[in-house]
């Protein structure tokens, strides 16, 4: 989402979406509706180019190499949370494990401050009975992203294009059988592995036979939701940040109107910086304000940082004279959302009727989210995670995708995703949780019905982790 749709994409070695029962719509492939997506094998060791200075007069930015390593790296670094309209946000929260959680020590010790205002929680429960039948297959791919046979893969011939740098991926193909009370789209979900990049869309495009891997296996097994996930927690999760319209605790709303209303800066070289957002989400403000109960229009954006202000060098380099705040860091954390994305057909501008919610490495907006590529770490793969993204105007299918250097040459064109989709909540609201689990290198995105209380019990979190759905294995 760093450069909206034009650069938030990658080419991939994937299941044949045609054989998986997927359909093309608006230039993108979609497979089955899902209530959960699990990213596995997240995190690797690598590096990116971090900004070390920005000259407002010349427009020159200098960078230096930063190395990282970890079970969810670089997405375990501090993240900012971004929203694009048409969108209405009803709840947002961040949780960290208490001392008793099996996921490890709490990554952020900031405690939530008492809210001065509360609003009635929203409940939108629906019962869906789904049977999951999984088909697995191991696929071998060479360094050109071309499928090879297992016998060829076992040959060791350095320098031979047919066998050089062979990777092995296990695909899980989930066939969804809804009950009569549920009406998700039929078809077969696709697990995808990305190995390179293209500009355009984060959905796979038809490719030549040399870059498409078809899933074919006679190995079938019925799997319950509880048996498809190895993730679990013990102990409560404590809420550190929370928002409801008109009330924000330990979280700060910002947008890109710097220099216009008493916070942030503007220059001819870099344009507007980030600044405090007013309660309407789209105007600038001189101090932090809680977002109101507003629906922002197409193309309008705001973002959320934690309530902890940067001090000294603890946030790294950031643009001078901006309100600089920490993001949400750590490899064990939970984000929760309640939102709606109504249709917006009134205009026809850029990103018309294409709402989205996504994470960025918090260094990106603190330097330059939109502009020269050398003035942020985005292009070199410091991390973006699209949670719920509409890829074409008026679509009702929300796609999720990771963009970082994993599985590529160390740029933002790596990562992975799935062509299964969440149904866009155009009327009513959708509740969702995003669970970062460093212990098994997974990130879960799940639709939920539970209330977002000050603490989440291990039973509640485990029920979210055990939801089965689409899978996306990063290389």
Structure description:
It catalyses: Hydrolysis of (1->3)-beta-D-glucosidic linkages in (1->3)-beta-D-glucans. With 475 residues, this protein is mainly β. It has one domain (17-128, 232-473). The chain is 4% helix and 35% strand. Strands 4, 8, 14, 15, 21, 23, 29, 30, 31 and 32 form a 10-stranded mixed β-sheet that branches. Strands 7, 16, 19, 20, 22, 24, 25, 26, 27 and 28 form a 10-stranded antiparallel β-sheet that branches. The longest helix is centred in the last third of the chain and has 8 residues, at 458-465. The relative contact order is 0.27. Mean pLDDT is 76; it is low at 2-19, 100-151, 156-161 and 165-229.
Set down the secondary structure blueprint.
Blueprint: H1 4-7, E1 12-14, E2 23-25, E3 28-30, E4 36-40, E5 46-54, E6 61-68, E7 79-84, E8 87-97, E9 130-141, E10 147-148, H2 150-153, E11 167-178, E12 192-194, E13 220-223, E14 237-244, E15 247-249, E16 251-255, E17 266-267, E18 271-272, E19 275-277, E20 284-285, E21 295-296, E22 301-306, E23 332-340, E24 356-361, H3 363-367, E25 384-390, E26 397-403, E27 416-417, E28 422-423, E29 430-437, E30 442-447, E31 455-456, H4 458-465, E32 470-473
Parallel strand pairs: 4-32
Antiparallel strand pairs: 1-12, 2-3, 4-30, 5-6, 7-22, 7-24, 8-14, 8-21, 8-23, 9-10, 9-11, 9-13, 14-15, 14-31, 16-19, 16-22, 17-18, 19-20, 23-29, 24-25, 25-26, 26-27, 26-28, 29-30
